[in-house]
């Protein structure tokens, strides 16, 4: 159902606009205020670029000094930024020229510059935690303001604000120098888990039943799917940036150029796998299948982005290197294998509606190669004795095989290798041929009769 939101020209533009829900559920029935593109999507892409640049900085810090402790810190940092970003765009929708629209990106820049040094300076720790808390509180304030301006999401938004304020108290010990680094990491991990669980609960059917509300939140599915796809493509940019900038593969044909091409092929295949999903002709997206598959689909993008950023940084850096240390090989293979497991999990969440026998193989046989290849790549990281070129070549060949397997197994039963070419001539030429051919035949028949 859609609502006509046309307004007189005199009220169309204001410096401060009233926040309004774009879509919601009313007694279980979906209602949209208007159809069309969401203007906030352009700002969201801008924030995604900033978000990925921060994560790339974290991945570079991890690649410079690879260890178990550094990996844990990397995961915690990425999780915090993942929690802070999705709700930040709410401040961009209702306010035109308001300072809160730029406060969160500003805090993100400060966070990204200080987070790599939290284990070295207490000042960096305090600045990082402070930026994160300001970002979260600003999001909570925007939601609270929104709840007064629009009744459609009021109950769930205020519940989330309450949980957010409670979660901020978990991070208070991080300000004190007397707390050990392990204690701070534990507190940060608890805070991340609490916030993620609170977010899922506040917008779940359980919360809707508990609050007994008539109006509840609804997701613009097409918009969110496009946004996550754009975000994923930006993440894959980590594979591509360093293979060109600074000309690391110059001059002519050299091993560095081969590494760059293999890295490009890996990124291309990863992008294809994400778009290909489970290969079904008729399926249901996790957003439409159930609430829990929707939450799962969104949440899996966190480890997916973290793993591909780390592997992309190491893979692209091989363009300018001749050797691959054991720790770098472990990070490259482990993170890339984890990314394939995440892509497998995303494909599992899709509902396959194809009738049995429609495609060459059923869904699970089509996508089972992803975790198998992922496990092989992870074990490859434990293999000593392989040089850099051999390691990257094996990884590339495995991922290409996975892509070819999925595309072939997703074909119709009885499909041919090449599709017959039709409609290769211009329409006016076909019309001309059809109009002249009968006349020629009649003329030939008359001559024959004579």
Plain-language structure description:
InterPro entries: Low_temperature_requirement_A (IPR010640). The chain crosses the membrane at residues 159-176, 188-207, 228-251, 257-275, 287-309, 329-351, 363-382, 388-405. Keywords: Membrane, Transmembrane, Transmembrane helix. With 450 residues, the chain is mostly helical. It has 2 domains: 20-218, no CATH class; 222-409, I/LWEQ domain (Up-down Bundle), CATH 1.20.1410. 64% of the residues lie in helices and 3% in strands. The chain has a 3-stranded antiparallel sheet. Strands 4-5 form a two-stranded antiparallel ribbon. Strand 1 (23-26) and strand 2 (29-32) form a beta hairpin. It is globular and about 75 Å long. The N and C termini lie far apart (73 Å).
What secondary-structure arrangement, pairings included, does this model have?
Layout: E1 23-26, E2 29-32, H1 40-64, H2 68-84, H3 100-114, H4 122-149, H5 154-170, H6 181-202, H7 205-211, E3 215-217, H8 221-241, H9 255-276, E4 283-284, H10 286-289, H11 291-317, H12 326-348, E5 351-352, H13 363-367, H14 369-380, H15 388-409, H16 427-449
Antiparallel strand pairs: 1-2, 1-3, 4-5
